[in-house]
Structure formats: C-alpha cells, structure tokens
Specification:
heterodimer; A: 422 residues; alpha/beta; Rossmann fold; 2 domains; seven-stranded mixed sheet; five-stranded parallel sheet; 45% helix; B: 308 residues; mainly alpha; two-stranded antiparallel ribbon; 2 strands; 71% helix; signal (chain A); ABC_urea-bd_UrtA (chain A)
Chain lengths: 422, 308
C-alpha cells in the first residue's frame, strides 16, 4: 500500500514534470527558427548583404508565369520544369546549404499583371531570383521593375533578341541562334532557293522573319516568294494556302502561334499539301504545340529548336524520366520547358561561384557558368547573358514526337544584336 | 497584280478562291446562327457564345477518345454522334444558364452583356480545370481528311465540303423551325408582344428557355464542326466571338436572311483581300468597310430589340 502511495506521489511529480516538459517542447519550433549559424555553410549576414529573403536554412525564389488565361497553354510546362529543377536542387542539399522556398505568382496572361506581380515578388517577398515570363510582351512589361529594384529574372522562351539587361538571364535562344543554322541546313540539304513566310502579326514573328529574309537574300542568295502575317487568333488560312500552292516555294517558313497554329496545320493538311513532299520549316512548333495540332496533321514538318524530348543523351533520359515521374506519363516536354528547367540550376551555380545571394555578385559571376548536366547537352552563359547552345532541326512524327535530323556541330554564340540583320 | 500568273493559274486561282470563300462563308454562318437566334430574336447579348461552341468541341473530343478506346470499329462515323451530343450538351447548358441567370435580366438587356461575359470567364476557367490548360487534339476519321483533286491545280477539301453541308442542313432546319413551325410562330409572337402572347396562352417562359437552349445547341454543333479546322482549348472560343458579333450586327440583328447576307459579303471580301493583300491588312480593310457601311446604315448597329 505504502509503495502504491509512493508511486502515486511519484506519478504526481511525473505529470507535473511532464507538463513542464511539454511546455518546453511547444517552444521547440521557435528554437528551430533561431539562428543556427554554427550549422549553416556560411553565415547569412555574409551571403546576403542586400536584405533578400535568405535565412540560415531557406532562400526564397519566385515563379512568375501565367497559370490562367490564354498563355496557360504554353506556360504550364515552364512552371512544371522550374518546380522540378527546384525540387531536385533541394534534394541535392539546396543552394549554399539553404533549401529553396518557392513563391508562385500568376501573371494571368495579362502584361500589366506581370509587372505588378514582379514588383510584389521583389519588394514584398525579397525573392533572391525569379524564374518567369514567357511572351516578349510580359517580359517587356516586367523588365523595368526588375531593373528598378535590381531583381534577377531567368527568362526561358526563345525570342526575337534585340535585348540585353543586367537583370535578366535568357535561357532560351535569341532569333539568330534558332534561325540561321537551320536555314543553312535546309538550303544545303534540300537545295532550297525560294521561301514563303507565314507568321502571326506581332513582334517575334516579324523580327524573326526579318532576320530570316536577310539571311536568305544576302547569304543564301535565295528569294522570298511571299511574307504574310495574320492577326493573333486568326483561324482561316485557305487563302494563303492557295497562294502558297500557286507560288510553289521550296520551303514554307512558318511562325504562326497559339490557336492559329492549330488551324494553320489542319487546313494545310486538308488542302492536300503533303508535308513529306513540301518542305516546311517552323520555329514555333514544339512537342507542346503538337499536342493540340495532332501528330497526323503536322507529320513531316521540320522544326528548329535547341531541344527535343527525343534527344538521345544520358542527361536528357534522366530529365525526361524525372519530369514524367513528377508530372505524369502523358506530359510532353517542349523546347521552352527544357530552357525553363535550366534557370534554377544556372542560378544555383552562379550563387555558389559568387559565394553570395547578392544580385550584383550573382550577375557578375554568371558569365562563363557551364551546366554540363543540361538535358540539351551542355550550355554556357555568355557575357551578354544569353546561352551558348546548339541549333537542332527535327522532323515531326505522327506520334507527336520529333526525330532529330540535324545538329549544329558547334555551340552557337548568342548574338542578340546581329549586325547586318536589322 | 495578275502579271505573275499564267492564264491557267488565274482560272484555278478564281476557282480555288471561290471555294475558300465558300468555306469561310459556311464557317461564318454556322458560328453566327446560334447567336443570331439569341441576339436577334431575344435581344440577349451572349458573350459566352464562344464558350458554348467550345463545350461542343470538348464533347467531340470526349467522343473521339471514347470511340477510339471502346468502339474502334465505328470510329468512322463517330463525328455524327459527337455533333448530336454536342447539340444536346450545349443546349442543356444553355437552358440551365437561361434558368439561373438570363431570365432575371430580360428587362436589363445591357446587363446580360456583363453577366454573360462573366459566365464566359467562369466557363473558360472550368474547362481549364477539367481538361487542363493545354489544347487537346481531336482525332478525325480518315475519310474526313485530305482533299479531292479535280484538276492538277484545283483541289477540293473534304472537311470544307463537310462544313458546307452541315451549315446548309442546319440553316434550312432553323429557317423551317422559325418561319414554318408552330414553335417558331410562338417565338416570334413572344418577341413582338410578350404580354399579348402570354394572354393568348403561350407559355412565354418555356419559349424563352427553349429558344436560348436552341441557340446554344447550334453553337455546340458549330464548335463540334470546327474541331476539323481549328483548335480546341479553354480559350479557343474567344477566337470566334468578335467575328460572330460582327456578322450578326452587320446583318441587322433580327433577320436570319440578314445574317446570311452579311456572312456572305464579309467572307468574300475577307478571302479575296487576303489573297491579294496580307492577312492583317485584309482584316483591317474588311473592318473599315463594315464600319463605313454601318455608319450609312445604322439599323444594323446594336439597335437593341429590347423587350417591352
């Protein structure tokens, strides 16, 4: 009995002790949030002198794409790729010992919204870097914000060039990288002399076609049989297809985008233009677009990009497997998706080279950064903030994939302000 | 302008261009027909017309996937089933929308513009959530692809012929329904004098609902047919809405014949100009011409037939 009483007393003590312990435990998360300078690779005060959102364990990075609106079609792939890259970096231990935390904002396919959200990511969230923008219009809208608040943007889309900013790293191709080598290829391989250009009516197709025209006329000594533009969202191409039939160009050079793209290829096919006989070179169709166009409708066309899902190299096989594991078996990976995947890695390497998250130091460290594990093979950042990369031409297959038929032997130097092409 | 072409080329230009214009005409009539009924007969500005079309397109997509998986032997004929289902789906959705939204706004016609615009945004986001933001590819049976060569340089697109046939059938059907049937008489009666129509025993609410459903159903058929020539994505409906309104307004809101005449003139102008000028320029000139004509004949221009 006495023993029992003693035990009771002990129990009483026990529970009081336990309560105190529990109270202490409740405070543990707060403890975890306290600075633990001793454990981190480098003290935060040293790697972050400009007030970015960097703690001893975390660094905040923004993702700014359209998850809603018209452009969601294209930008979804980029969001997925960036999230995959960041997840992989975190698995590898993060950047300078800090895990990346994502803040995702929706540009909603509306250009002023991009500027507004960019400001939010830089001013409120103090993001160390932002992966984002897709259309040139959204980039142009957000650019002044990045320059004003000294942010850092990784921009994934192939675009028209004619731009270079301290605050942007362009992970896609500028126009000459995409176009010139493929025109050379088609002239040599198919003996092409006359070209017919069809594009959507805005800055990217017009600038690209201008560069292509100069190259065709001055370098290849060929002719441009026609150059036609249609408003964005145009769905009727029968008239221009008739014109193509009459002009009988050696090559149709197409940069139609969005919903018009689908209509263009469907009507081309319906009009009896057989793409296995009529050479068509496009700079606006990736695996993503073929999903909507339908493999049968575009089989035989040639696309000029730097990346195709079917590329055969160990880096790409790993990337494709990881992408499908994260986002499902049915997703396809287009050129821009791959370029978006490069952004977080290039940033990580620049930060580690600089030993700091400070934007100025990261920018300074960026030129010369090499990414040998890139799915496209190998890329390197040029002092003009674009990437050295290869040009590839591939033939569309009925199953929606591409078969690479040409690859430039060397990396092509980015040249956003090409002389003689403006 | 003609100097570059030989005489044989020129004659095939005219034949092919005539046919291209005819296809465009059919496409325009098909997309405007549903709106002409709703806007012309009921005075409701349905900004969600494009989204009802895309509902039809998605139904077609689901149908094609279903037939491919479960009934591959009947795949060749699935398109007809898909069009019927598209009509029912869009029609049912239209009646639901009329019941939930439109019927409260008959006395405030301009508010229908806002309400249906909001509806179009909601539907777009719903498609995006359900089918994903990417465009879907609709597989067509092989007999509907390609073209029939008539001569060396003249070829006739099969899907063009198909659109022309569908448009003809639907237009005749609508004409008979509105001008020759008992139901059509009821629609016209309600439009011209609502209270009198009610007094002689017409169930005006039912007529409203059915008319709206009919217009939306036809939009669904149009969407289904357009999977052959255009894209199917959450926002594809937006590609059609401007042209559709242009045709209905230009034709004079209340008349079916006006819609057809306006679709004809706009499509022919557009397709001819596109051939001789560039695509964007053709559009600009067509729009300028429409504006100029509407200034001279403003009857067409948004003279809302408001219910009294």
């Amino acid at each position: 009995m006495a023993d029992d009483k003693g035990k009771d007393r002990e129990k009483g003590l026990d529970s009081a002790l336990r309560r105190k312990l529990l109270m202490g435990l409740a405070g543990l998360p707060a403890l975890a949030m306290m600075p633990r300078g001793a454990f981190a690779a480098a003290p935060t005060s040293a790697v972050n002198t400009t007030g970015l959102a960097v703690t001893d364990t975390e660094v905040t990075v923004g993702i700014l794409h359209s998850a809603t609106g018209t452009m969601a079609i294209s930008e979804t792939g980029s969001i997925q790729a960036e999230k995959l890259a960041i997840a992989q970096i975190n698995e590898m231990g993060g950047v300078l010992g800090r895990k990346i935390k994502i803040i995702q904002e929706d540009g909603a396919s509306d250009w002023p919204t991009f500027a507004e959200k960019a400001k939010k990511l830089l001013v409120n969230d103090h993001c160390a870097a932002v992966m984002g923008c897709w259309t040139s219009a959204s980039r142009k809208a957000a650019l002044p914000v990045f320059e004003q608040y000294n942010g850092l943007l990784y921009y994934p889309t192939f675009y028209e060039g004619l731009e270079q900013s301290k605050n942007v790293i362009y992970t896609g191709q500028e126009a000459t990288q995409q176009i010139l080598a493929s025109l050379d290829w088609v002239a040599k391989e198919k003996g092409a002399k006359s070209f017919f250009m069809v594009g959507s009516d805005y800055i990217w197709p017009r600038t690209s076609n201008k560069i292509a025209r100069k190259h065709i006329e001055n370098v290849l000594k060929g002719t441009v049989a026609g150059e036609e533009y249609f408003p964005l969202g145009h769905t009727q191409f029968n008239s221009v297809i008739n014109k193509i039939k009459l002009k009988k160009p050696d090559v149709i050079f197409a940069d139609v985008v969005g919903g018009s793209n689908v209509a263009f290829y469907k009507q081309l096919k319906a009009a009896g233009i057989d793409l296995s006989k009529q050479t068509l070179l496009t700079i606006s169709v990736t695996e993503d677009e073929i999903d909507g166009i339908g493999g049968d409708n575009i089989a035989g066309a040639y696309s000029c990009m730097k990346y195709f899902q079917s590329l055969k190299n160990p880096n790409n096989e790993k990337f494709v497997a990881a992408f499908k594991k994260m986002w499902g078996d049915k997703t396809v990976i287009g050129d821009v998706t791959q370029a978006a995947y490069l952004g977080p890695f290039l940033w990580k390497m620049a930060v580690e080279k600089a030993g700091s998250f400070d934007v100025d130091k990261v920018v300074e460290a960026s030129p010369g950064i090499e990414f040998k594990e890139a799915p496209e093979g190998y890329v390197k950042i040029h002092p003009n903030h674009h990437l050295w990369s290869k040009t590839r031409v591939a033939k569309a297959l009925p199953n929606g994939q591409f078969e690479v038929v040409y690859e430039s032997p060397e990396l092509i130097e980015p040249n956003p302000f090409p002389k003689g092409y403006q | 302008m003609f100097g570059d072409y030989s005489l044989a080329d020129l004659s095939s230009i005219f034949v092919m261009q005539g046919f291209a214009g005819l296809i465009l005409f059919s496409v325009y009539v098909l997309m405007a027909l549903g709106l002409a009924i709703i806007f012309g007969q009921m005075g409701v500005i349905n900004m969600a017309h494009g989204e009802f079309m895309i509902l039809g397109a998605y139904v077609t997509y689901l149908c094609s996937t279903f037939f491919q998986t479960y009934l591959p032997s009947l795949f060749g004929g699935y398109f007809f089933v898909a069009m019927a289902l598209a009509f029912l789906a869009s029609g049912a959705m239209g009646m639901l929308v009329e019941w939930a939204l439109i019927r409260h706004l008959y006395k405030r016609p301009l508010d229908t513009l806002l309400a249906t615009w909001g509806l179009s945004l909601i539907l777009q986001q719903a498609y995006r959530t359900i089918f994903g933001p990417r465009e879907v590819g609709v597989e067509l049976p092989s007999w509907m692809m390609g073209s029939i060569p008539v001569t060396d340089s003249i070829e006739v697109q099969i899907n063009g012929l198909f659109v022309i046939a569908v448009t003809t059938v639907i237009t005749l059907g609508v004409a008979v329904l509105i001008y020759r049937s008992r139901f059509g008489a009821q629609i016209r009666a309600v439009m011209s004098n609502r209270s009198m129509a009610g007094a002689v025993g017409i169930d005006t609410e039912k007529v409203d609902r059915t008319t709206f459903g009919l217009g939306c159903g036809i939009a669904g058929i149009a969407g289904s047919a357009f999977t052959m020539i255009g894209s199917t994505g959450p926002t594809s409906g937006q590609l059609y809405i401007v042209d559709t309104f242009l045709i209905v307004v230009f034709g004079g809101a209340a008349s079916l014949l006006g819609t057809i005449a306006s679709a004809f003139s706009i499509s022919q102008t557009q397709s001819t100009l596109e051939f001789f000028l560039s695509g964007s320029m053709a559009k600009v000139l067509t729009l300028l011409a429409v504006v100029a004509i509407l200034m001279l004949r403003p009857q067409g221009l948004f003279t809302l037939k408001v219910r009294r």
